[in-house]
Amino acid sequence: MSFVDVFKRSFIEQFTGTISVQSIILSLGTAFIISVFILFVYKKTYTGVVYSKSFSLSILLLALVTTLIIQTISSNITLSLGMVGALSIVRFRTAVKEPVDTGFMFWAITAGIMAGANLYIAAIVGSLIVGLLYFICYSFGLRMGNKYLVIIKYKDSAADKVEKELSNLVKYKVKSRSISNGIIEYSFEIELSDESQKLIDKISSISGVENTNIVSYQNDFGV
Question: Whole-structure pTM over 0.70, yes or no?
Answer without folding.
Answer: no
